[in-house]
Amino acid sequence: MLLNLNIIDLAVVDALDLDLDPGMSVLTGETGAGKSILLTALGLALGDRADSGYVRPGSKRAEVNIEFDLSKAPLVKQWLIDNELDDDGQCMIRRTISDDGRSKAYINNRPVNLQTLQGLSRQLVEIHGQHAHLTLLDSEEQRRLLDGFAGNQALLDNLNSCYQNWKQAHKQLQQLLKAGSDQAEREELLRYQLDELQQLDLENFDYQALADEHHKLANLGKILGVGQQQLDILYDNDQQSVADMLGHVIHAINELAQYANELNGVSELLSDAEIQIGEATQQLRRFLENQEADPQQLIWLENQIGVIQSLSRKHKIQPEELPELAARFATELDNLTHSSERIESLNADCERLLSQYRKLAGELSASRRRAGAELQQRISDAIKELGMPHGEFIVNLRTPEDAEPQRNGVDSIEFLVSTNPGLPAKPLAKVASGGELSRISLAIQVTTSTDKTTPTMIFDEVDSGIGGGIAEIVGQKLRRLSLNRQVLCVTHLPQVASQAHQHLFVAKNQKAAVTSSTVRRLSDEERVNEVARMLGGVTITENTLAHAREMLVSGGLTND
Question: What is the pTM of this model?
Answer without folding.
Answer: 0.61
